[in-house]
Amino acid sequence: MSELLNRRLTLLGEHSNLSLLEKCLHGIERECLRVTGEGRLAQTPHPEALGAALTNEQITTDYSESLLEFITPALANPADTLESLEKIHRFAYSKLGSEYIWSPSMPCPLPAEADIPIAYYGTSNIGKLKYVYRQGLALRYGKTMQCIAGIHYNFSLPEAIWPVLRQDAKFEGSDRDFQSESYIGLIRNFRRYSWLLMYLFGASPALDASFLRGRSHQLEQFDAETLYLPYATSLRMSDLGYQSNAQADLTPCYNDLLTYTDSLRRAVATPYAPYVEIGTHKDGEWIQLNTNVLQIENEYYSTIRPKRVTYSGERPIQALVARGVQYVEVRCLDINPFLPVGIDLQQSRFIDAFILYCALHDSPQLASNECCNASTNFLTVVKEGRRPGLQLNRNDTTIDLKVWANEMLDTIRPICELLDASHGTDQHVKSLDVQRAKVADASLTPSAQVLAAMTEHKEGFTAFSLRQSQVHADHFRSNPLSAEEQTSFESKARESLAQQAELEQTEEKVDFDTFVGAYQASILAISN
After folding, report:
1. Which family does it belong to (predicted)?
2. Separation CA 329–CA 153 (nearest Å)
């Protein structure tokens, strides 16, 4: 253990500081496809009974009209966060009729690109902007890629922890600057070490063959309709997933908040020749918001993002520049198809400890070779993570994945012990022990269990996924919400529909072209 990490753990373990770790906040966003009873993409509109996707804070859509997104509030106890997510699923199932929520991250067999419905958000200018943005994503990356789903895990350390750590660090700047610098340091370490999460929690070693739409690949045939890699952990996070040539040179490493926000500002303002060739209009209609590297900053794809809650009408970068980093959003987690909501408390507790490890451990700036190593290690593990004797790059040499993983778990254990002391439990250490068992025996990982279940039941990816979806549907439907909870969800759904209708009726009559122009200008106005 490094001197810095040891000093910080000692400091946070002091009686006056121990309760701070109880105040970390956790929020989860779960994306999931709506599918038919036959395991095909639901072509129905977003169910009105779930409310308006534009204005319902807990149930919205992501890329497609068929791609639900469930959003919990940020809560101190991850058990409460997961309970919130469970209740959203129960409510959704009370309104889905004969449809199912698809259990894994990789999509069901999809219709032709033209028949994948883009999410619709009504006739307000902001609703139309969200729709045009998604049309742009279809042009740039194809609709198929946008149907991949995941778990986004939002985590923040309590505001009161930063002055304590800052005093120890003898940092010259403000608490806010120290907080932002610390979160960026966390992100650098996440880039270094997130391969471990892919080994432990990756759950997409196989996919429906039609997903590739005839593209060349190095996957193996599991059966007539299923492709896989025998040692893969997360094909979702591999180069088969969401990739972009335009983004290839964009912020490969995080040095500080300013370089991060500046690189995104430039990307939103810099034309990209292939997009310029397409243009923003076709037959007089908008088809993308602009012809730049990014239409908006959220188009930048990364495994983790620095975030700040935005004010109404404020853009994410504006919030970061104005008020600094408030939390991180971990975006690389697969949905575990064996778990009803795709994640459980044991996983959540380990992720908390892992993120704290990234936050408290030394985090020097990434040299170019280290950046390259981080990217290479991540891609190696998502495609070959369970291969016996797999070697990863560390500094100027190689190291066995299991040796490195056990070293990291040894260092994370005192963090688990500190979290347990803070919460009065032993569950963080127990979660770590479960992860150590997966390192010792790769057959215990979710990715291995997916392939084992498919083999045992003599079923391909789609049959396995539909079977799991049906198991989860039975779980939620046999445990309905209380009458009071059901009424509350229904009330929020109706309120969201009324909010969207009011927005469409009362917003200032600014034509959409002017609205888009003002939206684009808002990011360019941010000073360096």
Report:
1. Belongs to the glutamate--cysteine ligase type 1 family. Type 1 subfamily.
2. 6
The residue segments making up the domain with residue 169 are 3-17+24-524
Domain count, the chain: 1
Distance from chain centroid for Cα 306: 12
DSSP code of 301? -
Decide if 418 contacts 157 (C-beta within 8 A). Answer: no
DSSP string, 93-153: HHH-TT-EE--SSSPPSP--GGGSPBP---SSHHHHHHHHHHHHHHHHH-TTGGG---EEE
Lowest mean pLDDT among 72-86, 118-132, 242-256, 273-287: 242-256
Q: Give the number of C-alpha atoms closer than 13 A to the C-alpha of residue 410, restricted to the C-beta side.
A: 8
Task: Provide Rg for the chain, Cα atoms.
Answer: 23
Tokens of 20: 């701070």
**CA nearest neighbour of 237 among 271, 201, 208, 266:** 201
Q: Residue-wise over 24-36: b if at least 16 C-beta within 10 A, else e?
A: bbbbbbbbbbbbe
Give the span between the Cα atoms of 181 and 399, in whole angstroms.
30
Ramachandran region, residue 267 (left: φ > 0; alpha: ψ -120 to 50; beta: rest): alpha
CA distance 50 to 467: 24
Beta partners for 394? 397
Sign of CA dihedral 453, 345, 470, 52: negative
Segment (H or E) for 400: strand 397-400
Would you tell me the crossing angle of helices 345-360 and 3-12 to the nearest 10 degrees?
120
Backbone angles phi, psi at 198, to 5 degrees: -70, -40
What pLDDT shows up at residue 244? 64
Read off the pLDDT of residues 129-169 as tens digits, 9 standing for 90 and up.
999 999 999 999 999 999 999 999 999 999 999 999 998 88
Query: Is residue 89 within 8 Å of residue 28, measured between CB atoms?
Result: no
- Nearest in space to 184 (alpha carbons), one of 378, 375, 365, 54: 365
Q: CA angle, 180 as apex, 176 and 186 as ends, to 5°?
A: 145
CATH of the domain at 54: 3.30.590.20
pLDDT in tens, 215-272: 889 999 999 999 999 999 999 999 886 566 677 667 556 889 998 999 899 899 999 9
The answer to whether the CB of 206 falls within 8 A of the CB of 235 is yes
- pLDDT, residue 224, reads 95
The beta strand positions in 224-311, using DSSP E, are 226-228, 281-282, 285-286, 304-307
Q: What is the pLDDT of residues 412-470, one digit of tens each?
A: 999 999 999 999 999 999 999 999 999 999 999 999 999 999 999 999 999 999 999 99
- State which amino acid sits at residue 421: A
Nearest to 401 by CA among 186, 233, 188, 235: 233
